[in-house]
Automatic annotation (TrEMBL), chains A, B, C, D:
Keywords from the named record: Hydrolase, One-carbon metabolism, Purine biosynthesis
Taxonomic superkingdom: Bacteria
Enzyme class: hydrolase
Gene: purU
Name of this protein: Formyltetrahydrofolate deformylase
Catalytic residue list: D218
Amino acid sequence: MIIFIQCTDQVGLVAAISRSLARGGFNIISLQEHVDNTENLFFIRLEVDKNTDTESLATDLEKILPTGALIKINPRPLKKIVVLVTKEYHCLADILVRNYFKTLGAEVQCVIGNHTTLQNICERFDIPFHLIETTGDAAASEQSVVEIIDGYDFDYLVLAKFMRILSPNFVGRYPMRIINIHHSFLPAFAGASPYRQAYERGVKLIGATAHYVTNELDEGPIIAQQITPAGHSLTVKDMVKAGKEVETAVLAKALKLVFEDRVFVYKNKTVVLE
Amino acid sequence: MIIFIQCTDQVGLVAAISRSLARGGFNIISLQEHVDNTENLFFIRLEVDKNTDTESLATDLEKILPTGALIKINPRPLKKIVVLVTKEYHCLADILVRNYFKTLGAEVQCVIGNHTTLQNICERFDIPFHLIETTGDAAASEQSVVEIIDGYDFDYLVLAKFMRILSPNFVGRYPMRIINIHHSFLPAFAGASPYRQAYERGVKLIGATAHYVTNELDEGPIIAQQITPAGHSLTVKDMVKAGKEVETAVLAKALKLVFEDRVFVYKNKTVVLE
Amino acid sequence: MIIFIQCTDQVGLVAAISRSLARGGFNIISLQEHVDNTENLFFIRLEVDKNTDTESLATDLEKILPTGALIKINPRPLKKIVVLVTKEYHCLADILVRNYFKTLGAEVQCVIGNHTTLQNICERFDIPFHLIETTGDAAASEQSVVEIIDGYDFDYLVLAKFMRILSPNFVGRYPMRIINIHHSFLPAFAGASPYRQAYERGVKLIGATAHYVTNELDEGPIIAQQITPAGHSLTVKDMVKAGKEVETAVLAKALKLVFEDRVFVYKNKTVVLE
Amino acid sequence: MIIFIQCTDQVGLVAAISRSLARGGFNIISLQEHVDNTENLFFIRLEVDKNTDTESLATDLEKILPTGALIKINPRPLKKIVVLVTKEYHCLADILVRNYFKTLGAEVQCVIGNHTTLQNICERFDIPFHLIETTGDAAASEQSVVEIIDGYDFDYLVLAKFMRILSPNFVGRYPMRIINIHHSFLPAFAGASPYRQAYERGVKLIGATAHYVTNELDEGPIIAQQITPAGHSLTVKDMVKAGKEVETAVLAKALKLVFEDRVFVYKNKTVVLE
């Protein structure tokens, strides 16, 4: 069972928490903690050996922890997700394959696309695919996404190369539950056509960034980033191709971290306890 | 001997150039070429086995190459450089050590600093150190740099963590001859305090960029870039420390490429023929 | 059209080859060459702009090149492959997905497995799956592989985590046409259970190696290698998991290089002209 | 103050230790722990906010920890080291520079060399250099090393490209106190001429390994490893050059970890708590 605590830092927190666990008969299998001294915040992720008596543990922890502590005990081990896509297959296919072989750490509930391009691959894996219209106004099209996903129980929305900007209204419905893969090494090349921007700037490395979606475009808390070399011999097209490999890898890594409940969010940043 | 050609692309350039070399009795040891199809530009770097008869080769090449071709034959193999510094030692010390053991590919003529911090290390390696005043106005201080370096024969000015912005007037005197190391993965975090910016943005990788200096701050052609992981556990200070290792490595790599005449510049980009 | 030449090195080869191309009306789009001075061997890969008159070009090149030159003109652009698997899905699924979206650079003719585990994923992608018996002797089982693949036209056999050792007799039938992915950074940890070996040795990085199969186990010419960090916190199981990501990436990269005719083999090594 | 504990794993160790610290008035600033489930071993590194009352803390910890626990409280923060070299400068110069600018985390007491090549650079940094004779037998030469270092107070011997094999007798005198940099990605290419071995095997990556020296040549516990790309275009000489950059970086990283008391050794492996 996973326990996850974020609170104001204080003297003796580890002692207090571990005593509380011992009282409840929980043995610590692994423990990662982090203190942000600037913000005076304490973060801890614990893996313990039993998953019963969680209510009395919660009550006990609430007593000993500072006011306002965020305590998460035993989050759902196998997450449920909805995936949004446009036309590019690489991230979606990677998710579908891991889902099919049960190594994703989550179950794909359905895929929503604004083109039919990826419908067939979903059907091959028996995953429901919902096509949304994009001919009308953006609000109407977002509304149809909301209607579809409201029919599902899910923990996270994964934007696997969904090439539309979501409205503040939509984002506000799912705070820190929407994960995006952006095809640049943010904050470099936010917005449209990052590979073209990278090509024109003549960078020697290109990258990808997985982040939570907030109302500031490409400005949400970063979960994972990676890069790949990009010399002068790469055209924009070549960069797009090379970039896809990094995008797939970075999104896979970020999802793994999120699904294993290793990611805390605060101040538009993440703490990743591995 | 190195030969270096940049010109409009045309059919048959490799054939024409290699025929011209054969006529002159030059045998090709190695050859790297690149064509930028968007700009219709051709770049070639050749290593040949003799370094005589360069004038007749130049005449011959000029005849067969398109008008406006840039031809560089037998550039000075061991470059001469002047290094500008402020207080941080890491890049300078790396340059001084390689210079001392004759593995830099260049000879350090002198070091110019706007603080005395690095005077002693220069003296230990018998390299002249010139202190420039920074109390007066920037123009006066730049003028004193010009006066010092005018006393030296040099190919490149290396800004090894020189923390001042050079004026267009100064930069214009040495076009594509000033090399800077910037402590971020450009174009992310241009300007001041890139590590603080990186810390505040919560990035998961930090980097460094070696580039030619132009009049646009941190916007010149990029020669080399590299990154290092930067998780949540790093404070700004830790990032500065980790960053220094990358800065040293990236500047060393860029200098090697430049000193070996492997870097072409065009359209605010570089072609690096390795 | 691709042209690919390997021969004894001589003065004037580039000039002679480019003249021959010019005579035939072929314009060079890109050119990569390499000289191994120790072995006195010359390698060149050219991309030219027309794919007719290949026979007269071949005749012309034979005349000007040293005796024994290996000349390959216009190899089949879209390769055909047969994939051999056991139970692990990651490399196979990556190949099937790229094949399905036509980004593999090859067409998968069929998959041969010695377990039924991966039959279903093949069927989902409409790729024939052949199950071979492994209960009898190894020779019989290999013979059944031969019988199956003899029914297909193919350029390469890809061992995508095929966990059996092939006999010299089998390997001899397809020289430099069998590509394997080995789950270690060769030559470290050849043979069985490389991740267990890596765990026991306490290495800080683990890797994967794609190579041509020869009669020496895990000793064939290496095409591509990559690594991933592996700290003390990884169990053998964790290493296996982390390793799968690298294996998939390395095999994908090696196949791309091979399918684009960028890999020369000599002296149990490869020259990769990118 | 650093506290460092290695013992048999038991239920409630973190609680017991943190309680003991709270009793003594020590507040935890940072904590990293690791459990090796296979060996049933527990490792913890703590940074606490005061460095007095260490004796009563030791007594208290001994009471609550399993028999045989290894407890290290407040190890010397600034280590003292002796460096052994042969002719290559890169690792030594890096150490001398960091030592000079007080960023090494240790103080270089002296350098011992079996050639005069590096004497001058030591003198430039005012570090005593001792030349040992290597003309006689190996035992005599080792004996002279022992005599020199016996004159110094030191925590670690650093072999910064010391190209001689030390006898079991010598190694036995300084258990887990001798750190070596080996110029390959161990266990690949142990022994002599690793770059030549790498060249001949045709690997696509080369590396370096920092490890504790034991009586098995190049078989001691690994502290850090890193790699760099090595394509077909590199000669053995080029590999040696490229390798030096990695060797310098890997040794610097390993020394940092060791000097900050982050490295535990058990079963010929290390646990590195960062």
